[in-house]
Each structure stands twice: as C-alpha cells, then as structure tokens.
Design brief:
Shape: globular
CATH architecture of the largest domain: 3-Layer(aba) Sandwich
InterPro entries: ANL_N_sf (IPR042099), CapK_Type1_Caps_Biosynth (IPR053158)
Low-confidence stretches: none
Distance between the termini: 49 Å
Number of helices: 13
Protein name: Phenylacetate-CoA ligase
CATH superfamily of the largest domain: ANL, N-terminal domain
Structural class: alpha/beta
CATH class of the largest domain: Alpha Beta
Radius of gyration: 22 Å
Enzyme class: ligase
CATH topology of the largest domain: Rossmann fold
Keywords: Ligase
Largest sheet: 11 strands, mixed
EC number: 6.2.1.30
Strand order of the largest sheet: 4-3-5-6-7-8-9-13-12-11-10
Mean pLDDT: 87
Number of domains: 2
Number of strands: 19
Strand content: 25-35%
Length: about 450
C-alpha cells in the first residue's frame, strides 16, 4: 500500500463519519445487494415510489396521472429528454437548478446529453462505482490513472480535485508509439495503482506493451478497469499475461453511472438491481423481448429525484437474464453487451454481430494493419477503413477475414486512411452502422 492511499482512505472515513457515515452506508448496502440480490418486493416498491413521485413533481410526468404500471410510461431517448429538459425537471429542484450536478455524455455515439442530478444521486453514482471496484479488489484511496481525451474547459479536473481523489489524468488524444512511451513512463513515475480506461484504449496499450516488450516490473499497477465498449477476449487474455491478473469488465454510462460489472472471473456482467430497473425491448418496437433474446437496454433509475429517468433507452443492446436464487432473491446478468445501435453491425442475413468480431478479426495481422473501422452502408454493402502498412498488407486477405462474418455476398469497399481518430469520449469506434434499415 502507498502512503497516499492510506491517507486518503483515512480522511474519507473520518469526514464521512462526521456526516453520519452516509457514504459508507450507501456503499455497504450497494455491495451487499449486488452480491446477494434484491427481493421482488423491493423492486416493485421502488418502481411505484418513483412513478408516484414523478407524477407529483415533474411537469412532464404529470401528464401520466392515470398510468398505473411502468409500461404505461413512454420510453425516453436522449433526443426526447433534450426536447423536454425543463418539463422533466422536478418542481422541488427548479429554484436550485444551478446547484445541481451535471452528468454529461459527449455524444460521440449519439446525441449530446446532460442529466441534472441532486446530491444524493451523485453520491450514489460515486459509491456505485467504488462498490463494483471493491468487489474486484479495489481499496479506497488507491491512485487511479484515468485514460481519456482530457479537454481544458470541458472535462479537465482541477489540481485540488485530482489530489483529493488521487486521480491522474492520462490523455489519449494521441496513442502513437511516442505518446504510448510517455504514458508508460507516467504510469511508472507516478506509481499509478489502477488503470481506468475504455476498452479500445486498453487494447492499444496492451498491444504496445507486448510489441515493445515493456518491462513493467517496477510498475505499481494492481488493477485494470475496462469501461465502455466490450473488452475483446484477446485483450482480456493479453492483460492477464502481461500483468498477472485479469482486467475487470464493466458496463455503464455517464447519465446513470455504472449499471453492471464483471465480478471475479465470471464471463457475465452482474447488474446493480438495487439502483436500477432493467427492461429489454425489441429493436423495432417497445414490446419486451423474451429472456435470452437480443434487445434494447432500457433503464429506470430509482434515485435521481431532480430529473426522473424512467424507461431511458440507453442506445445500447444486449442479452439479459434474471434468475431467482433459493432464498427468493433476484439477480440480473448481461450475458452479452453489443453496444450502441449506431455501432451494431449485421451480416448479409440480417443477423447481429458482436463487437468482438470486429475487435478480434485482425489478430493475425498485427504490425501490418494498425487500425480498422467497418461501416455498414446498406444491408449488403460495407466500407472498410484501413490504417495499414500498404507495402505489406494483403487486401484480399483482410477483406476475406471480414467476409467470413459478414457473408460471402457482402460488397466490401476498402479505403486507406492515415489515422482513425479516437472520439472525444476516449473511444475508438471499430464499427459504425449507417444503414437506415437498422437505425
């Protein structure tokens, strides 16, 4: 343990106790409910309380006074929230709007969106994150290195907040070899203990560490936490090979917080049913899908009293299952997370493809193909953007590797580019959906 870690953990505990131990209580209950599951009575009670509260205090939801069941409330998208921002905001917080917290999403894979939230919800967002981390070995106060595109005036945090949270900003606006060498030196020099990054950034970093045979024996890294798009199995295995432990896979968004996380070595993602109610709806209607079928991930947030988020269509898709244990407690799991509809690809038969396909398809071409992005323009027409060594690349071989998954009748056009940039969010999209039939 580092002295800074112990100091910050001690300071957190003392300050929290002075305020009644509220944060520790939230964290303790959250961790227990994630592991032990929730009762059906709890879920029903929380949904009913939220619906009643919204109908009383939100001008938008006052229009749904006769609605008795959550399915009678509208499914909301980012666009709908943006169009009704003031109406959704509850009257109880309208006169202190400026003091509310703002949870922003960059819009790199959809519409830009800002969610207002009260202090209690903000505490739950933070403790929810810590809960998932601690279930995988994190210790409060550990020094975190967060990989993002840090933009002054937008998301760069102050020196005081960085010091207080023991957080080091690692900029990934450039992830060429020179920049990666600097990042590695920063990890070593600053004695960073936890790497928190989008999966695409971790894929680039792991590849660099392997390719350059970087000596990490003097590093202090004890944990790697993957956010955003699904972490490809190859990267997962490579991180375990390099560091001697597995990365932690998670799923969440900026609007609600962390929704689910891998616990231990499980392949599935355990969902936080204590804070959220999950629905899986059809891709082309608001009807529920059958258990085990692909669907849109729709989230109801129990605890944002300033800005009720009821039936929020996250834009993500996946496969979800709920099970009831021998004690009658309910557990939720995502067995597959495909990501945004705008980044979800289909083969020529109209069957969905996991993002892992596009993140793993070039495994045997390392050093030749540096980056790739597949764009689906029509049901059978695709474009492949390649950042590659043109003197060595075998274009027919690359196209064949994609056609294996897209279908033999796929029309695949190749466009060479010098760089496929990382999005403002810190993600590098490996596939993009442009076919109107699937949007």
């Amino acid at each position: 343990m580092q002295a800074g870690e112990i100091l910050r953990r001690t300071a957190f505990n003392i300050l929290d106790k002075l305020h009644g131990g509220k944060l520790e209580k939230i964290k303790k209950v959250n961790k227990r409910e994630i592991v032990e599951g929730i009762t059906e009575e709890y879920a029903q009670r929380r949904v009913e309380m939220l619906l009643d509260y919204a109908k009383k205090h939100s001008p938008y939801y006052k229009n749904y006074q006769d609605a008795q069941d959550i399915t009678e409330f509208p499914v909301m998208t980012k666009m709908k929230y943006n169009e009704n921002m003031d109406a959704v905001l509850c009257d109880t917080f309208r006169d202190r709007k400026d003091s509310l917290f703002r949870l922003k999403t960059s819009g790199s894979t959809g519409a830009p969106f800002t969610v207002l939230c009260d202090g209690d919800k903000m505490n739950r967002v933070n403790m929810n994150f810590i809960s998932f981390m601690e279930l995988n070995g994190f210790r409060m106060g550990m020094k975190r290195g967060e990989f993002r595109v840090w933009i002054p005036g937008k998301n760069v945090i102050s020196k005081w907040k960085s010091f207080k949270n023991n957080l080091i900003m690692i900029d990934i606006s450039n992830m060429g070899d020179d920049a990666l060498a600097d990042i590695c030196e920063k990890i070593r020099k600053d004695r960073i203990q936890v790497l928190v990054a989008y999966s695409s950034a971790l894929t680039v970093l792991a590849d660099y560490l392997k390719r350059k045979k970087v000596d990490i024996r003097k590093w202090d890294v004890e944990m790697v936490f993957a956010m955003g798009e699904a972490l490809p199995q190859k990267t997962y295995d490579l991180i375990r090979e390099i560091f001697g432990f597995s990365a932690v896979r998670s799923y969440g968004n900026n609007e609600n917080g962390f929704l689910a996380c891998q616990v231990g070595e499980e392949d599935r993602y355990t969902v936080d049913l204590y804070n959220f109610y999950i629905e899986m709806l059809s891709l082309d209607s608001d009807e529920p899908v059958k258990p085990g079928e692909l669907g849109r991930i729709v989230v109801t947030d129990f605890y944002n009293k300033a800005f009720p988020m009821i039936r929020y269509d996250t834009g993500d898709t996946g496969i979800y299952q709920e099970v009831t244990d021998e004690k009658g407690r309910k557990h939720g799991y995502f067995t597959e997370i495909y990501g945004r509809r705008g980044s979800m690809m289909y083969n020529c038969k109209g069957e969905p493809l996991s993002i892992h396909v596009f993140m793993n398809v070039l495994i045997n071409m390392e050093g030749i193909v540096h980056q790739a992005k597949c764009i689906q323009w029509e049901k059978k027409r695709y474009e492949l953007l390649l950042n590659a060594d043109r003197t060595r690349v075998n274009e027919d071989e690359v196209v064949a590797s994609y056609r294996k998954y897209l279908g033999e009748e796929a029309q695949i056009d190749v466009t060479y580019v010098d760089e496929i940039p990382i999005e403002a969010s810190g993600k590098r999209m490996v596939c993009v959906q442009k076919c109107q039939a699937y949007l």
